[in-house]
Design brief:
Blueprint lengths: L3 H6 L5 E6 L2 H12 L11 E4 L8 E6 L14 H5 L18
Parallel strand pairs: 1-3
Antiparallel strand pairs: 2-3
Length: 100
């Protein structure tokens, strides 16, 4: 995140992670599509592609034999995993009737 929003919050997206089962093909595709560079220290099965201008977030590509889709228990905070009962919403305001 760049620009006014980043300077106001102090937050910046550092990296976006992609899991894939065709590691070299995925890296080559995104490297060409984004014109990012791949530092020589990238290992096999994992690479970090970097914006040559240093402005946009990195793109991390990780090879995996099995892809998982959707949210898993490990992607939710522990407090949500423990709670199994639904939370009842509280009213925002008490309704009132005005009579004239």
């Amino acid at each position: 995140m760049e620009g006014p929003a980043a300077s106001q919050t102090g937050l910046r997206i550092g990296s976006v992670v992609i899991n894939c089962n065709d590691f070299e093909g995925t890296v080559a595709f995104w490297q060409e599509a984004l014109r990012y560079v791949r530092p020589p220290r990238s290992g096999s099965g994992f690479a970090i592609l970097k914006d040559p201008a240093g402005i946009a977030p990195n793109l991390s590509v990780q090879g995996t034999p099995e892809l998982k889709f959707g949210k898993t228990a490990s992607s939710r905070p522990a407090s949500l995993n423990a709670a199994s009962r639904p939370v009842q919403p509280k009213p925002l305001a008490t309704p009132c009737v005005v009579r004239s």
